[in-house]
Amino acid sequence: AQRVTQPEKLLSVFKGAPVELKCNYSYSGSPELFWYVQYSRQRLQLLLRHISRESIKGFTADLNKGETSFHLKKPFAQEEDSAMYYCALSGGASGSRLTFGEGTQLTVNP
Amino acid sequence: DTGVSQDPRHKITKRGQNVTFRCDPISEHNRLYWYRQTLGQGPEFLTYFQNEAQLEKSRLLSDRFSAERPKGSFSTLEIQRTEQGDSAMYLCASTQTASGNTIYFGEGSWLTVV
Prior knowledge:
Largest interface: A-B, 22 and 24 residues
Distance between the termini of chain A: 41 Å
Oligomer: heterodimer
Number of strands of chain B: 11
Radius of gyration of chain A: 13 Å
Helix content of chain A: under 10%
Radius of gyration of chain B: 13 Å
Distance between the termini of chain B: 35 Å
Strand content of chain B: over 45%
Shape of chain B: globular
């Protein structure tokens, strides 16, 4: 079975502060991990995926297979980062369905 | 291409009525997914299609739920004899498995059963 856990439902930081959104997963094989973001009144959209190893909007995430984690980080949060963030896992096969965590609502205060 | 589109965006129905949602995926996307999302939860997988073939159904998809993708393009999700517990956001998503596998989501269809 595959499972994604996001331990924080709510996270509040001040503008310019570092932010880390935690994600842990459970999967017996080699998963593909994603972060999706949903801004207010917008659709769910892909933020980044671990195989791309890229930084999007200043966010990065490293897959730690030993700790089965895929935490999302940004060194200096901006107010426009306020959104709902979902960590998701795919079983690895092409186009496999995503299993989502419950999400973390990030609020960046001025 | 405007992305994945869903219709209707909002539906209020009385308990016991049938409802149908439509999803138009991004053109030439061969895989289409349906998810359900309730307040405070992440999206939960319901079913997916590879072209017109329904390849997987979640245990969440009771007998009252049926999904089709008859020509491998748009899809419909029908809920028969709706119950209050069916109230949720129904999300459609699509991807092209041959090109990067990024899954794109629609804006969802809100269902309220009263």
